[in-house]
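Technical annex, item 7. During the second reporting period the consortium partners agreed on a shared format for inverse folding records so that results from different sites could be compared directly. Each record opens with the tokenized structure and is followed by the designed sequence. A conforming record, contributed by the partner at site C, is shown below for reference.
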């Protein structure tokens, strides 16, 4: 299991209690090993980051991006974060909120395909 900065635990709890509509929709389909018996964790601290969803067996991170991720500062932050996640052997999938809300089944298919490659 990857280690994390202990101070992030409190923030992760807060994020779990305040998930966006898109995060809630995806979590309702990932929780309790619903997607091909793979365990996912939500708002999981990894290193100095908190990722939206994490499947340790598949070494997969799934991020759901709101509008702030498409601004220059957000793009740079995500690039640094993704580079670190890749450096520890994780694969990162990113979807925007709208995709998750309107095309949930396609998002789940993309996650499933990525898991099959990674397992």
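Designed sequence (site C submission):
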């Amino acid at each position: 299991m990857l280690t994390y900065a202990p101070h992030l635990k409190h923030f992760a709890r807060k994020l779990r209690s305040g998930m966006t509509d898109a995060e809630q929709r995806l979590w309702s389909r990932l929780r309790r090993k619903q997607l091909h018996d793979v365990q996912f964790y939500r708002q999981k601290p990894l290193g100095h980051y908190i990722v939206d969803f994490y499947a340790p067996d598949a070494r997969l991170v799934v991020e759901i991006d709101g509008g702030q991720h498409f601004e220059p500062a957000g793009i740079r932050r995500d690039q640094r974060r993704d580079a670190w996640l890749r450096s520890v052997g994780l694969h990162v999938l990113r979807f925007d909120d709208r995709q998750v809300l309107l095309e949930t089944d396609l998002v789940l298919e993309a996650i499933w395909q990525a898991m099959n490659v990674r397992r």
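The two ends are 16 Å apart (CA to CA). The CA atoms of residues 62 and 93 lie 5 Å apart. All partners now use this format for quarterly exchanges.
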